[in-house]
Amino acid sequence: MANTSSAKKMVRKIARRTAVNKSRRSRVRTYLRKVEEAISAGDKAAAETAFKNAQPELHRAVNKGVFHSKTVARKLSRLSSRIKALAA
User: Fold this and answer.
1) For residue range 52-65, what is the model confidence (pLDDT) as tens digits?
2) How many Cβ atoms sit within 10 Å of the Cβ of residue 48?
3) Is 76 in contact with 55 (CB distance < 8 Å)?
4) Which of 44, 50, 55, 73 would bridge 35 by S-S if both were Cys, CB 3.0 to 4.6 A apart?
C-alpha cells in the first residue's frame, strides 16, 4: 500500500495509463483480427483493405509506447506475406 503522497499519485497515474494502454491494445487487436479473418476467408481484396487500415493503427501504438517497433514490423511483415500468398 502506498504511504507517501507521491506514491499515491503514482498509483493514480499508473492506473490511468494502464486503462489507456489497454484500450489501445484492444483496438490494435481488433484491426489485426479483421485482417486475419479476411485472410482465412481467402478474400484478398478485403484482406488488403483491412491491412491498409491496420497499418497506421499499429504504427500509432508504437509511437504511444504500447508495442515495440520490431514487434509491429514483424507482425506487418508476416501479414503482408500471407496476403501476397493468397494470390498464388
Assistant:
1) 999 999 999 999 99
2) 16
3) yes
4) 50
Q: Calculate the CA 34 to chain-centre distance.
A: 12
User: Burial letters for 25-34: b for 16+ Cβ neighbours within 10 Å, e otherwise?
Assistant: eeebeebbeb
Which of 12, 16, 19, 21 lies closest to 64 in space, CA to CA?
A: 21
Do 2 and 11 touch, CB atoms closer than 8 A? yes
Enter the DSSP assignment of 4.
Answer: S
Residue 25's contacts (CB-CB under 8 Å, 6 or more residues apart) are: 61, 66, 67
Does the pTM of the predicted model rise above 0.70?
Answer: yes
